[in-house]
Each structure stands twice: as structure tokens, then as C-alpha cells.
Amino acid sequence: MTTYIFDFDDTLFDNAKFKKDIFKILKNNKLTKEQILTSYLSVRHDYNFENHIEYIKNNHIKINHKNIKKEFQNINLIDYLFKHTQETLNEIKKDNNLILITYGNIKFQKEKIKKTKIHQFFKKELIFITNTNKIDILKQIPNLEKSYFLNDKEEENIKIQKEFKKIKVIKIDKKNNIKKAIEKIKKEEK
Ligand SMILES: [Mg+2]
């Protein structure tokens, strides 16, 4: 039994693609490049559609925010799971211990987890959503021997590896997605 700890955004969920589509909607609704970027960066750490629209509403009076809202609501979150995500989690869930730790706006992360149906692969008590930091969450989880932490954010990975010597941190990116990373782990464990 191996413990796999997953990050959500850009590990299981293509947040880069999601962001691109959000920006496209704003561009089609006449926001300038600069307005798009400023609006996103202003709400990034507590991102959800409501916060983003609220910012636009308060800062760009002439923009049709009702239309933006409608287009945001039409976004189908499940479309942003990486295509190997479900397959990989499904394959390993039976014989391993799976943990999900995600950082962001609590309500929105919850919605993303639910709408992508990713919750089916994790025990309810092993899904952690934080708006502070992942290290505090990891400290609360017992028995992390023989566990792997799969995450895209390099800065965070370095901090976590320093703090938790018994966890093996693995950097996830387009070249080393969770499918490839887990195949590698399995080979090494044999
Ligand atoms: Mg991430």
C-alpha cells in the first residue's frame, strides 16, 4: 500500500487551459489585455467566478458583466480534467491510499472537485481544501511513511520536501504528468 498525495490545480485539473478560456471570455466582452490581467491577478488567491465578476463590476463600469457571468456559468469544469486523470486515479485507488490537498477559495475548490467528479476516487475525510497552506494540512496527517506528494508548484515542493523528509515530492508538469510519474514509482518499487 502506497500513499499518493495529490494537488488539484495543474496536477489533476488543467488550470492553465481554464485560465485561457476565462481570458477569452473577457476578451470577447471587450476587456483589454491589461484589464484582463489586472482583474485576474487581483482575485487570483481567492478565485471564484463571483469574486472575479465583482471586481470587474466595480472597476469597469461599461463592461457587460451580466453577459460575462452567463458565459462563466456555462463553463463545464469537467472538461478541464487532464485526459489521463480519471483513468490513472481509477487504476490506483483500490490498492493505495489516496489523499487530495488543494489550495484556493474553499467554495470554488469544493465546486471544482464535485463537478469534475474527482471526489469519487478519494475518501471524504482525505480531501483537504485550504486557503492558507498545504504544510499545515500535511502536519495533521499521520503515517506518511512511504508516501508521494505529486504537485506542479516547484516553490511549494521545495518547502514541503525540506519539512517532510519521509515524503517523496514529485514535480508534475506536462512532460511528467501523474500517469507517467506513477508508472515510474511502480517500476522503482518493484
Ligand atoms: Mg497546483
Spell out the blueprint of helices and strands.
Layout: E1 3-6, H1 15-28, H2 33-43, H3 49-59, H4 65-73, H5 85-92, E2 97-103, H6 106-115, E3 127-130, H7 134-140, E4 147-151, H8 154-163, E5 167-171, H9 178-189
Parallel strand pairs: 1-2, 1-4, 2-3, 4-5
The protein binds magnesium ion.
Magnesium ion binds next to loops.
Radius of gyration (CA) equals: 18 Å
Question: Which band does the percent of strand residues land in?
Answer: 5-15%
CA-CA gap between termini: 13 Å
Number of strands: 5
pLDDT < 50 stretches: none
Report the CATH superfamily of the largest domain. HAD superfamily/HAD-like
CATH topology of the largest domain: Rossmann fold
Bound ligands, each once: magnesium ion
Mean pLDDT across all amino acids: 96
Oligomer: single chain
CATH architecture level-2 label of the largest domain: 3-Layer(aba) Sandwich
Q: How would you sum up this structure, described in words?
A:
With 190 residues, the chain is α/β, with parallel strands linked by helices. It is 48% helix and 13% strand. It is built from nine helices and five strands. It has helices spanning 15-28, 33-43, 49-59, 65-73, 85-92, 106-115, 134-140, 154-163, 178-189, and strands at 3-6, 97-103, 127-130, 147-151, 167-171. Strand 2 (97-103), helix 6 and strand 3 (127-130) form a beta-alpha-beta unit. Helix 2 packs across helix 3 (49-59) and helix 3 runs antiparallel to helix 4. The longest helix has 14 residues, at 15-28. The model has no long low-confidence stretch (mean pLDDT 96). The structure holds magnesium ion. Residues 7, 9-11, 151-153 line the site of magnesium ion.
